[in-house]
Design brief:
The structure is a homodimer.
Chain A (H helix, E strand, L loop, with lengths): L7 H16 L6 H8 L3 H7 L5 H4 L1 H15 L6 H19 L3 H10 L2 H24 L6 H22 L6 H11 L5
Helix pairs in contact in A: 1-2, 1-7, 5-6, 5-8, 6-9, 6-10, 8-9, 9-10
Chain lengths: 186, 186
C-alpha cells in the first residue's frame, strides 16, 4: 500500500475510532493510528492537528450547514422552525455520511470526561451561533437566543435517542420527533 | 480581627471575587485570598477545596433547589411549566442572596475560558438532572429531556440578559420573560 492515497483521511478516521474503542482514547497514540491506517505520522498531521481532532473535525462543517440552513429558511417561518431547519441540516449531514462512525465516536466520547466536555462546548457554541444567525434574520432577543438554545437542545436529545436506539433509524427522524415535541411541552 | 469569625466563608468569597477582578483568576493565590479576608489559609481550606470552588460552590444548592421545585410542582402542570418552576426556584435563590457577587462572578468567568467551560458543564448537568426529575414525575421521553433542556436554555438566556441589563432588575423577572417567550417561538 502506497503512502499516499486519496482516502488517507477516511482511513485515518476509521483506524482512530477502532483504536480508541480497543485501547481507549488515552491509550492510543498518533503513531498507532498512522500505522493502522498504513500511512506515516506526517500524513496524519497533514489531515488532523492531533488525535482529538479526529473526533471533532466534523464540527465546523456541521456548524456551517446549520448556519446556511438558518439563513436560507423561508422568510415567514417562526423562530423555532428556522432554528429547526438548522438542526435538520445537521442531521442530514450526519445521515448522508452513513456508516457507524457517529455511534462509535459517541461511545469513545462517553468513556472520557474531557471529550464529553468538549462535545458539550461544541453544542453550546452551536446554540450561540444559531441564535446569532436568527438575529441576523431580524428575530429579536430573547427569542433568537431562546430558539437557538431550544433547537440545539432538541438536536441533543434526538441524537442521544438515535445512539441508544435501533441502528436502522435515521438521526433525522429522531431530531424531527424532538423538534415536533417541543411545542407540545407548554 | 480574630482568626475565627462566623462569617469567614462570606468574607473569603468577597475577598476572592475582588482579587479575581483586580489580578485575574490565574494571578490570584489562596494565600492572597486568605490574607485579604483576614484568615489563615487553613481556614480557607475548611470552606473551599480550591480557589475555583469559590465560584462554583453555589451550584449544588442551586441544583437542589431546582430539583425540589420540580418535585413539588402541581401535578397537572405541563412539562415546561414544571421545569420552569425549577428555574424560578434557581432565580429566587440568587435574587435572595442579593449583592453583586453574581455579576462580579460572571465577569471573572467571562474572562477565563476554562471557567466558562466549567459553567457550561454545570448548566448541562442541571439540564440532565432536570430531565431526570421530570421523568421521576412520570413525564415520558423525549418530553422530559426536552423540557429540561429548554428550561435551562431559558434560564441561561435570562441570566445573560440580567447580567447585561440594569442592576436593579431581578434575575427572576428576566427568567420569567424568557420562560414566557418559549411557547411563542413556534
Amino acid at each position: 500500500m502506497g503512502r499516499w492515497t486519496p482516502d488517507a483521511r477516511g482511513r485515518l478516521a476509521q483506524a482512530a475510532i477502532e483504536l480508541y474503542a480497543e485501547r481507549g482514547f488515552e491509550g492510543t497514540t498518533v503513531a498507532d493510528i498512522a500505522e493502522r491506517a498504513g500511512v506515516t505520522e506526517r500524513t496524519f498531521f497533514r489531515h488532523y492537528a492531533d488525535k482529538r481532532e479526529v473526533l471533532f473535525a466534523g464540527s465546523t462543517a456541521m456548524q456551517d450547514a446549520v448556519l446556511a440552513a438558518i439563513a436560507a429558511a423561508p422568510e415567514d417561518a417562526t423562530p423555532l422552525a428556522v432554528a429547526g431547519d438548522g438542526m435538520r441540516a445537521a442531521a442530514a449531514l450526519i445521515d448522508s455520511a452513513g456508516g457507524d462512525f457517529p455511534r462509535r465516536r459517541s461511545a469513545v466520547i462517553a468513556a472520557n470526561p474531557s471529550l464529553q466536555e468538549r462535545e458539550l462546548l461544541k453544542l453550546a457554541a452551536l446554540a450561540t451561533a444559531s441564535g446569532g444567525a436568527l438575529r441576523a434574520r431580524g428575530v429579536p432577543e430573547p427569542a433568537a437566543s431562546l430558539a437557538g438554545q431550544a433547537a440545539v437542545g432538541a438536536f441533543h436529545v434526538g441524537f442521544a435517542q438515535w445512539i441508544a436506539g435501533p441502528a436502522d433509524a435515521t438521526l433525522a427522524s429522531h431530531v424531527e420527533q424532538a423538534l415536533a415535541t417541543l411545542p407540545t411541552l407548554a
